[in-house]
Design a protein that fits this description.
Blueprint lengths: L1 H14 L3 E9 L14 E8 L2 E5 L1 H5 E4 L3 E4 L6 E3 L1 H4 L3 E3 L8 H5 L10 H6 L1 E5 L4 E5 L3 E8 L8 E7 L2 E4 L3 E6 L2 E7 L4 E9 L2 E11 L6
Parallel strand pairs: 9-16
Antiparallel strand pairs: 1-2, 1-7, 2-3, 3-6, 4-5, 8-10, 10-14, 11-12, 11-15, 13-14, 15-16
């Protein structure tokens, strides 16, 4: 399916006299290429406008699948002309020059937090923690930091875990807006394994896995 979308964009660009490339690589989701890059499974495009290359993914912009069977049409223009750093959160090209970012092209793959279609809709770039899997101590301050390319307010931000069908919110504090970045802190009061989700309004935009150990005093 993705190859068909990529060829469609390329053909449309040909008609409009826009230079376009099909990019093959690894798509990361909650189900595939999570911790290591195992399967080349996706295609997207790079287009050249006014002398500059941009990235787009018409497949994921069109909607999403439920259980691999039912397609839900839900247009998301966040996947067109996307910031390369955001695009790289779940797109890893076979040829690294198509990161369109020199820093990204020189770093090795590591499992970052999982992002979603809603991440692109809200134009959120997770920054910290920068790894999908993080260890911390009980009652240790953990900093969450992200960049928002669109305007959001304090009331839009929450940190939750999913219990059954409900989202249980954690208490966050020291919420700051500085230099285009937003940060806040949280403390985990109990030991254990946690799947934690950053929400913007009603949408989950990033997921993290935490292992919380005994406090440092009892290490």
């Amino acid at each position: 399916m993705c190859t068909g979308y990529a060829y469609l964009i390329k053909e449309m660009c040909f008609i409009a006299n826009i230079e376009c490339k099909i990019i093959d690589g690894y798509a990361r989701s909650s189900e595939t290429n999570i911790n290591v890059l195992e399967l080349v499974n996706h295609s997207w495009n790079a287009v050249k406008l006014n002398g500059k290359w941009y990235l787009c993914d018409a497949t994921w912009a069109s909607g999403y699948m439920i259980n691999g069977v039912h397609f839900v049409k839900e247009y998301n223009d966040g996947y067109f002309l996307t910031d390369p750093i955001l695009f790289a959160k779940n797109h890893y090209p076979l040829y690294k020059k198509w990161f369109l970012n020199n820093q990204l092209a020189t770093q090795k793959f590591f499992p970052e937090p999982i992002v979603y279609n809603e991440t692109f809709k809200h134009k959120i770039i997770p920054i910290e923690p920068n790894n999908l899997n993080t260890s911390a101590f009980k009652n240790q301050e953990v900093v969450f930091r992200f960049k928002a390319l669109d305007t959001i307010s304090k009331k839009d931000i929450s940190l939750v875990k999913i219990v059954g069908e409900k989202h249980k919110a954690f208490k966050i504090y020291d919420l700051k807006f500085e230099n285009g970045e937003i940060s806040f802190k949280n403390k985990f009061k109990n030991r254990g394994l946690y799947d934690i989700h950053l929400k913007i309004k009603n949408d989950i935009v990033a997921s993290y896995s935490f292992k919380i150990n005994k406090s440092q005093l009892h290490k």
